[in-house]
Amino acid sequence: MEKIIEATISIFSISAIRYFVLAGVPFALFYLLMPAKLGKFKIQQKPATKKDFIREVWHSMQSTLVFSIIAVALVFTPLYQYTRIYANINEFPIWYMGVALFLSLIIHDTYFYWMHRLLHHKKLFKLTHLVHHKSTNPSPWTSYSFHILEAITEGLVLVPIVILVPMHPLTILLFTVTGFIINVYGHLGYEIMPKWFRFTWAFEILNTSVHHNLHHSKFKGNYGLYFRIWDRMMGTEHSDYVKEYDRLQDQRFNQK
To answer: Does the record carry Transmembrane as a key word (predicted)?
Structure first.
């Protein structure tokens, strides 16, 4: 039991530091140091408040604790024997770690899309997901701002991933860091994709900050996490998404 407590404290501490660094650096850059210079990148012009930021950090720390407990349960308890986590890094070729990371992101996106739609059901929304949607104009601090019940639901995605995909602990770490960086970008409140991105195949597949920002401002549609695929297949992508993205591109690059 002592080992489990120590592992929980250790993973929570590392995850909390990661949250404050990976969310704090872009927050400092876009919201404190260069908000005027980067104004053209801002998706919603209305400012979020200090009260919003404090609420988001508080809920994010609760979520971080939940995620840490789930990780410890899968790695340091008898549940480990039901997973495909492997300790010897040479058990699979090093390049396989990239494959496992890619597969984990696909599983996560699919899990998130359907879980997210479920949380928008009227009987569940006020009970759980409303906490996240109090941030109608999200910032990097919003990334983990969940009701504790939603945090449990969010964190449980790790269960199907480690059951279905052989994962080294380092790959699990890469998955959590990669997912969080993309999450911060989705909640950034600014669109930073380069001008050429709009005219590539990647635009048709990948989400953008505008894509998820519309979900926060409109409350419905755009349920995907990393990709547009499920939203486009299920007809839940917001009808104004491309138009809104192009509007912001015009704003950023002074196009006619």
So the answer is: yes
